[in-house]
Amino acid sequence: MRLLFLHSLFPLIILFPFTSQNPHPPRWTLIDCGATTSSIIGDRHWLPDTNYISYGTPKTLETIVNDVTLSTVRTFPLSGNVNRKFCYQVPVFRSAKYLVRTTYFYGGNRSPPVFDQMVDGTFWSPVNTTDDFMNGLASYYEGIFVAGGKNMSVCIAANSFTDADPFISALELVILENSLYNSTDFSKYGLRLVARHSFGYNGSIIRFPDDLYDRFWEPFGQSNNPISTFRNVSVSGFWNLPPLKVFQTDMKKNKSSPMELLWPPMSLPKSTYYMSLYFAEDHGSSEENPRMFSVTVNNVVYYQNLNVTQAGVMVFANQWPLNGVTKITLTPPAGSNVIPLINAGEVFEVLPVGGRTLTRDVAALERIKKSLDNPPVDWNGDPCLPLDYRWSGVTCSNGPSERMRVKSLNLTNMGLSGSLSPSLANLTAISDIWLGNNSLSGAIPNLSPLKFLKTLHLEFNRLNGEIPPSLGDIRILSELFLQGNNLTGQVPRKLKEKSGLELRISPGNQ
Q: What contacts 395, CB < 8 A, 6 or more positions away?
């Protein structure tokens, strides 16, 4: 239904009980970045990160912290690595929906660096922990993404503003129930958390075990609005499965009049947002006098005549335009004695999914990587996406992002050793392969399936064996540079007779 995309700016409203009162416990992957041993925190098992990433330096902070996961970090060298990504590769269930949370605690003596983070081929957000650092706090970022393959890559990368080594303290992946945020088409979009609050609550962050998925519900209050605490509500549930604890407090006026709420508590960039508001009756109304009010967002009707019951109600929009300060207004009917209230809310920015490199090309590059003794350090995550963070030496097509193809491979003078993988022949859209001035050894594989290959530069390596005659079958091959190797035998007749081919075989070779 097009209504799901809110072209008319009217949200959907959900008034459902749970279909299951005992959902399966979530499956977690909790990674303590920089740690060398596992630990148990709050009955949950945290793992060291050594099995998920092959680069970076683990460090133990000198700052004393109460949370064990903040005592270590993994850092990534800035020098020579601007726009190079370093990725955690986490095994996942294909097509499952995941909450992904990254945590950062700098613990240094200078302002922390600003850098970027991404999930698979999607740019997630900049990481700027400066404000939290000044207050001695950790920063966390949360997003919701669907796994496109058997592994999900969560990547850290320096940008042109980064002035020190990027770092990360913790990484968490939690499988979500299908019902959570299910109005979003996760084949096209991801969600980046902007704010999640429990209104009228002033305790510590509500999280697991109150929230089965360990979402963080931060306290939020405003001095001009009284609050109710420890309410005896009978909420039966919502698709998004918020914890019961967020309904034990509320924020409301002390008289029947419109209630204005500036929330989320920050100015928002112009974009589209998923916004969900939660309400539950606290036994203060009746059938004769229902708690009914209208909800507007920035003076635009969000929901008209919302009837709040003890079972609870959720009002949400999955693509609502916001820009700057957001004002939510709860307005009772004229002449009524209804007092508006609100319990909780969530806001996510809607992120277009960046797409993926064609699986065939990804598999080929992974095999090529394994054939090298020292592959480029940033050969992790999606090879082509995000475009500003594609793998070193890899150039990709300009076509649809869901079918990105590898068009060229240029690893000239990279100090590479190892061999040439036969999987080079699986990069069937490639036009140029430049691997000269390295220390590659072994034979040249059959590359005849590469019908679009124009240039092949393998000069000044340690390749041996004969020149494959199959190279002569590549119709548009115009440059073949093989000088400076240890090749033997005769130059194949097909190559000697090939019109328009620039062939270099000397010096070197027998």
A: 406, 407, 408, 409, 410
pLDDT value for 1:
22
Across the range 449-468, mean pLDDT stands at 97
pLDDT in tens, 224-260: 455 555 566 666 668 899 999 999 899 988 788 999 9
Please choose, from the candidates 488, 447, 441, 434, the residue with its C-alpha nearest in 3D space to the C-alpha of residue 461.
441
Across-strand partners of 341?
252
Q: Which of 141, 175, 209 is the last residue of a domain?
A: 175
- The helices-and-strands tally (H runs, E runs) of the chain is 3, 36
E strands in 82-176: 85-91, 97-104, 115-119, 122-127, 139-146, 151-157, 167-168, 170-175
- DSSP 8-state assignment for residue 280: -
74 has which bridge partners?
58, 168
pLDDT digits (tens, 9 = 90+) for 304-332: 999 998 888 999 999 999 999 999 999 99
Tokens found for residue 205: 């962050």
Residue 215 lies in a domain: yes
**Alpha carbon distance 43, 183 (integer Å):** 33
Which residue type does 33 have? Answer: C
Statement to judge: residues 212 and 244 lie in one domain: yes
Domain boundaries, position 369? 359-504
Whether residues 482 and 369 share a domain: the answer is yes
Whole-structure pTM value? 0.89
